[in-house]
């Protein structure tokens, strides 16, 4: 049902949505309900220039078809077991109900040197050990095959052949990024048509997304390019059951009193600068899960689950070692502080400066 084309007589017979809306979806590459399910009302509104209310109405009517379809519980359990990629952080796996979910777009943000690439390499190593294929798009030339081999070798020193499961692509700007994504999509489509799904990757990493957007020559604004990337990434994730894992950087911004939700009398006047995740709020609403890394010395880090429907705001301490990432068992005092943090957190998008996800506010 979810793979029936929008242009088929079936949807015309339902008479839920005007046919020209379905035709627009089809021309934009949204061929069926599976493709549509990855979009939020805000994304549909921006992409097709509908009002937010109209976008919500369209999604509610079309996706109600999926909700009405019964599912076998055994099939649901079987599907769930193959939907996650485990990380080296047991607490993160537990709070995300099994690991990082395939079929989703996940962002990892942090400052330079915080350990984003190390996390990507560790995730790649985990896929290798599970026998899963990975495509690693390196935009900042930080990929290290030796480092990856060290992480794999920490489990078994005779597993060098697992590197054959990793495909690397080096790109320099947004043009080459979109071209390689189009190539990957065509290749995956051919694999599916040839019934070679076992050859399809489980993980697609873009490390990082901010770098190529600074060097675009496509003639579009950054917002348009980001919309094109988001559209393609979520389509790949949903259609081919990929985990699309993207790293992002942080920037320094000037605080606006208009956007400040609550004035803090304890803050000193003149502290108008703060750290924020790059690429803006529209991007932050596009990702399914937002993770962030705080820097705490040479090896110690703190991972924050900043946005997820499966987990409340949560912090996980870990360290970066020669053989990869290792979670740190926290003492009683730290656990007590974390419980206080959980009580204060609310179910909304967490901003970097509000929850100290990235670093401290900058002094003027």
Question: Could you name the key traits of this structure?
Answer:
364 residues, two-stranded antiparallel ribbon, alpha/beta, 2 domains, globular, 19% strand, Rossmann fold, 14 helices, 13 strands, disordered C terminus
- Order of strands, main sheet, comes to 5-4-6-7-3-10-11-12-13
Provide the structure class: alpha/beta
> Helix count?
14
CATH class term of the largest domain? Alpha Beta
The largest sheet is: 9 strands, mixed
What is the string of SSEs from the N terminus onward? Answer: HHHHHHEHEEHEHEHEHHEEEHEEEEH
* Number of separate structural domains: 2
Binned strand content? 15-25%
What is the residue-averaged pLDDT?
78
Question: Helix proportion of residues, in percent?
Answer: 25-40%
CATH architecture of the largest domain: 3-Layer(aba) Sandwich
Fourth-level CATH superfamily of the largest domain? P-loop containing nucleotide triphosphate hydrolases
**Cα-based radius of gyration, to the nearest Å:** 21 Å
User: What best-fitting shape do the alpha-carbon axes yield?
Assistant: globular
Distance between the termini: 58 Å
Q: Uncertain runs with pLDDT below 50, 5 residues or more?
A: 257-270, 339-364
Question: How many beta strands in the DSSP annotation?
Answer: 13
Can you tell me the CATH topology of the largest domain? Rossmann fold
């Amino acid at each position: 049902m979810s793979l029936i084309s929008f242009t088929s007589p079936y949807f015309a017979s339902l008479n839920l949505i005007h046919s020209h809306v379905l035709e627009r979806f089809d021309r934009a590459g949204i061929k069926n309900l599976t493709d549509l399910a990855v979009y939020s009302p805000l994304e549909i509104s921006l992409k097709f220039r509908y009002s937010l209310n109209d976008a919500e109405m369209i999604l509610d009517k079309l996706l109600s078809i999926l909700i009405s379809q019964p599912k076998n519980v055994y099939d649901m359990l079987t599907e769930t077991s193959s939907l996650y990629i485990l990380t080296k952080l047991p607490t993160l796996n537990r709070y995300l109900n099994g690991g990082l979910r395939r079929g989703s777009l996940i962002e990892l943000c942090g400052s330079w040197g915080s350990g984003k690439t190390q996390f990507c390499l560790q995730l790649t190593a985990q896929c290798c050990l599970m026998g899963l294929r990975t495509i690693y798009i390196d935009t900042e030339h930080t990929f290290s095959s030796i480092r990856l081999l060290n992480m794999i070798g920490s489990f078994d020193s005779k597993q060098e052949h697992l590197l054959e499961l990793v495909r690397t692509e080096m790109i320099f700007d947004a043009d080459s990024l979109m071209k390689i994504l189009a190539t990957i999509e065509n290749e995956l489509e051919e694999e599916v048509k040839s019934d070679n799904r076992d050859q399809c990757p489980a993980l697609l990493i873009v490390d990082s997304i901010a770098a190529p957007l600074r060097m675009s020559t496509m003639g579009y604004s950054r917002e348009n390019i980001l919309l094109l990337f988001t559209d393609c990434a979520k389509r790949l994730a949903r259609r081919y059951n990929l985990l699309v894992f993207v790293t992002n950087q942080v920037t320094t911004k000037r605080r606006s009193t208009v956007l400040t939700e609550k004035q803090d009398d304890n803050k000193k006047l003149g502290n108008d600068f703060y750290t924020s995740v790059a690429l803006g709020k529209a991007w932050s609403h596009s990702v399914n899960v937002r993770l962030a890394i705080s820097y705490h010395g040479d090896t110690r880090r703190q991972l924050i689950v900043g946005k997820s429907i499966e987990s409340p705001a949560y912090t996980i301490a870990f360290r970066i070692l020669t053989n990869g990432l290792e979670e740190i068992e926290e003492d009683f005092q730290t656990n007590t502080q974390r419980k206080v943090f959980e009580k204060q957190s609310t179910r909304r998008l967490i901003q970097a400066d509000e929850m100290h996800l990235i670093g401290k506010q900058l002094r003027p």
